[in-house]
Amino acid sequence: MPAPYTGGCQCGQVRYELTGEPIRLIACHCTECQRQSGSAFGMSMLVRQDDLKISGVTKSFVRVADSGNENTAVFCPDCGVRIHNTPHYLDGVLTLKPGTLDDTSWLKPTAMVWTKSGQGWVPTPEGMKDIEGQP
Predict the structure, then answer these.
(1) Is residue 123 part of a domain?
(2) I need a labelling partner for 128 at 20 to 30 A (CA). Which of 42, 88, 106, 111 fits?
(3) Does residue 130 belong to any structural domain of this protein?
(4) Side-chain-side CA neighbours of residue 64 (13 Å)
């Protein structure tokens, strides 16, 4: 499915358009992604910062990831849905939360990361990269 892609938060107050193609899509098993998603893993889509156009008011906070790197988490102040993270160590790149896309039918991660902290009942699909820590 070619760009542009649209998405937003659960309540609709924050909307966005992604005008460029994603760089990479990963399933992350770090403890922060488990906590943030309320599930066994979270998904992160690496995109170019200049390709993401957000409308609506967002809030943010800085957190330290399992890797020790700082990230700014950006979310809707009304419903709390995380829209993206801004990893401070990646210049010009964001990690969009792809579950916020309007159409998620085409999503297929290419790697599972932080599998050393993953749930044992979630196997890595055949042919997918398995990375124990930070890629």
Answers:
(1) no
(2) 88
(3) no
(4) 1
Q: How many domains does the chain have?
A: 1
CATH code for the domain in which residue 56 is found: 3.90.1590.10
What percent helix, strand, coil does the chain show, rounded to 5?
10, 40, 50
Q: What is the pTM of this model?
A: 0.85
Q: What HEC string does 60-114 produce? A: EEEEECCCCCEEEEEECCCCCCEEEEEECCCCCEEEECHHHECCCCCCCCCEEEC
Amino acid at 76: C
**pLDDT in single tens digits along all 135 residues of the chain:** 688 999 999 999 999 999 999 999 999 898 888 888 888 888 999 999 999 999 999 999 998 877 788 889 999 999 999 999 998 888 899 999 999 999 999 999 998 889 888 888 988 888 888 878 877
Give yes or no for a contact between 46 and 23, defined as CB atoms under 8 angstroms apart: yes
User: Of 107, 53, 50, 44, which Cα lies nearest the Cα of 73?
Assistant: 44
Cβ atoms of 110 and 127 closer than 8 Å? no
